[in-house]
């Protein structure tokens, strides 16, 4: 089972992290709560010890479901959650203020049934609180023993100037969308990994499911599934057709390697963006097991190049 040590920490985690968005039971079509709980158990029982969630996923439901599924095994898991997105009276806005961070952490600790969060991430920057102020608030939480480490999410080139101002960058990780279906953040991923000593986490690693190989050009989603909206470009128009070309190559390589299509898509990230953590949302034990296959093989250079060629944007 492939593991990675998150930079500047003592956190040794599986290179596959179970994404907690579906655990919120919202926005991913119909989900079966027991399947979600069984998926978490299957992950833990099969060496996947890293779980990503956020206070906004299902308005706290994801954190609650994760805590219920882990039960007394919670200490065997490394949990990362996020703050910074507020949803109030049907409106969504970003808030990285100290007042809000101190309030948000209490909610997450309660729902996760934990005294301490292993890694606390800034979900989105709010466009006004300086990064040094955010870090200062998070340092206070560390001193209070409420969090162990902190990281960033959805950062881009424009955040670099603020990162440069730290003598030692206190953020240990960052996460951005990255997959064979979405390579627009690629240069940022390498820059933040190599120049700012942060472990990269990828989200949308299966392109919200399109890279699993189970969808075709006629795929349709219910209105309670976010992928029905055109903003989820991977399932619409030209982008869908392009993704299906990538899936054809994934299927070829799945046959060559004897591995699941999903695991080949995940493996490409691990082989190409080395030392990363690949976050993948899963709704059932079967999906978790297929995805975990990625941790026990490597692609050849030729296979990586074939995937690079078909997926270059
Ligand atoms: N920082 C951020 O702003 C941010 C944003 C988005 C996500 N995330 C994190 O990243 C995680 C993953 O991203 P994501 O959930 O958006 O997309 P994803 O991991 O690319 O896709 C997840 C979906 O793919 C399908 N799937 C997974 N494994 C499969 C398998 N083996 N076979 C077939 N289908 C499979 C499932 O949906 P179906 O079965 O319904 O197809 C699953 O819900 C999230 O859960 C969350 O923790 C973070």
Major sheet strand order: 3-4-5-8-9-10-11-12
Strands, count? 12
**Overall average pLDDT:** 97
Oligomer: single chain
The geometry reads as: globular
Q: In CATH, what is the class of the domain at 3-208 and 273-284?
A: Alpha Beta
Contiguous uncertain segments of 5+ residues: none
Question: Biggest β-sheet, characterized?
Answer: 8 strands, parallel, barrel
Order of helices and strands: EEEHEHEEEHEHEHEHEHHEHH
Which hetero ligands occur in this complex? NADP nicotinamide-adenine-dinucleotide phosphate
Approximately how much helix is present in the residues?
25-40%
CATH H-level homologous superfamily name of the domain at 3-208 and 273-284: NADP-dependent oxidoreductase domain
- Head-to-tail CA distance between termini: 31 Å
The CATH architecture of the domain at 3-208 and 273-284: Alpha-Beta Barrel
Radius of gyration in whole Å, from Cα?
A: 19 Å
CATH structural fold name of the domain at 3-208 and 273-284: TIM Barrel
The assigned structural class equals alpha/beta
Roughly what fraction of the amino acids lie in strands?
Answer: 15-25%
- Helical region count? 10
């Amino acid at each position: 089972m492939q593991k990675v040590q998150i930079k500047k920490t003592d956190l040794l985690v599986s290179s596959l992290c179970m994404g907690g968005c579906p655990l919120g039971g919202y926005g991913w079509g119909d989900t079966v709560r027991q399947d979600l709980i069984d998926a978490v158990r299957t992950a833990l029982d099969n060496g996947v010890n890293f779980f990503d969630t956020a206070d906004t996923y299902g308005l706290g439901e994801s954190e609650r479901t994760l805590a219920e599924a882990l039960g007394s095994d919670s200490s065997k898991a490394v949990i990362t959650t996020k703050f910074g997105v507020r949803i109030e009276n049907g409106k969504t806005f970003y808030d990285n203020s100290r007042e809000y961070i101190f309030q948000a952490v209490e909610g997450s600790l309660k729902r996760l049934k934990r005294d301490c969060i292993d890694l606390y991430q800034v979900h989105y920057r709010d466009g006004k609180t300086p990064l040094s102020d955010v870090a200062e608030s998070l340092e206070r939480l560390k001193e209070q023993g409420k969090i162990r480490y902190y990281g960033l999410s959805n950062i881009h080139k424009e955040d670099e100037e603020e990162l440069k101002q730290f003598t030692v960058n206190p953020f240990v990780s960052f996460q951005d969308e990255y997959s064979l279906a979405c390579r627009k953040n690629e240069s940022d991923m390498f820059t933040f990994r190599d120049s700012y000593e942060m472990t990269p986490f990828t989200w949308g690693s299966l392109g919200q499911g399109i890279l699993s190989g189970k969808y075709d050009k006629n795929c349709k989603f219910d209105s309670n599934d976010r992928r029905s909206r055109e903003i989820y470009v991977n399932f619409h128009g030209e982008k869908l057709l392009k993704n299906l070309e990538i899936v054809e190559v994934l299927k070829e390589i799945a046959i060559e390697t004897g591995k699941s299509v999903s695991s080949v898509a995940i493996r490409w990230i691990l082989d190409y963006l080395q030392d990363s953590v690949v976050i993948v949302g899963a709704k059932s034990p079967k999906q978790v097991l297929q995805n975990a296959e990625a941790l026990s093989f490597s692609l050849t250079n030729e296979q990586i190049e074939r995937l690079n060629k078909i997926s270059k944007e």
